[in-house]
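Instructor's aside before we start: the two examples that follow are unrelated to each other. I chose them only because their records fit on one page, so don't look for a connection. First example below.
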Amino acid sequence: MRPPPRPGRKTGGFSLGILTLCLVAAGCLQSQGVSLYIPHSAINATVQEDILLSVDYYCHGVPTIEWKYTSNWGEQKIVEWKPGTQVNISESHKDRVCTFDNGSIQLFSVGVRDSGYYVITVTEHLGSSQFGSIVLHVSEIRYEDLHFVAVFIALLAAVAAVLISLIWVCNRCAYKFQRKRRHKLKESTTEEIELQNVEC
């Protein structure tokens, strides 16, 4: 005759099975996630500069990367691509954008209208996604600032010219003073020699 089954063993095996299943599911969810790293969330630039919007991501498989631009003038898609495939660039940014496999993009010759929020979305093939944003502020080169710099440089040049002139004048005065002193010393020496000759 078989002994009656112990209820504790079945319950323990069932709990262990559920715990294992939960751990495997958590591992799968974690491995399917997307992580995104943005080293600089704000960038300041001047007109005509080339700007790198630098990011880096990690996920399993080949994701879809999309950049959008939001400003006072509205929102528009800049570029969308999968690393290793053809890049779809919007008409507004043709010949102005360069893409990189790590998700970064470079903007060439930025203007004031390029100021705003740049949002990147990295979407994995299973549907999970991650997004981040970079704020770009583009300022004009002000001619008042250039005027101030030019005036400051001119002032420095004038001060340098005055100092050089003073040094030259001081040098000439010292040279003349030494010359006169040598001349007087020579005259006094000559007089002493003449006196010695007379006394002899």
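Example two begins here.
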Amino acid sequence: MPTTPARRRGQPRTKPEAERRRDLLDAGLAVFTRRGVGAATVDDIASEAGVAKGTFYLYFSSKEHLLAALQRDFEETLVARVDAAVATAGQDWADRLDAWVRAVFADHPTSRQLHDVLYHHAVDSPAPPSGAPADPPHDLVASLTRLLTAGIAAGAYDVEEPELTALLLCSALHRTFDRVWHRADLDDTPRLVTAVDRLFHRAVGIPETVAGRT
């Protein structure tokens, strides 16, 4: 049976809740990367974080709950970078859409291992407590939906269902990345970016003469 990890000399007896939660998230990611989500246990994660198993359950109800939190962290960080790229792309709505696509492409190769660990094991996010408002989504679909909705309001995009369109486009991107990462013959980023730019432009009704720009 696992024992409570010994406290290191000079280590404080308690930590702020946010710091302890971060320790557990980092420990979970390390264990998931090393052992895989299926083989990892709460005991492994608690040991990696240097805490008792009971401390884990003060913050997360299960390893799946922790994995869902890691997914949210990953998505929020990615979306912040993508939204920042769009915000600095200028006033042209075609350029803004291109900036969104290119920011996603720039991020995924550097986070390939992290993405594989977090998203090749399906989990259900815990429901909010009864009566509590659900957190607003901070994933790529929500980011693209916001961009499409703003472009529609500006008269630049012709899209009837922005959220559904965003979901379909993001799903296509996700599948593309999975295929590219496992097939070297498809790993031609400039060609892929151009193809995705054109797909997105057509999906939102940007004329082909604009979509063909370099």
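The chain has two domains: 13-60, 64-211.
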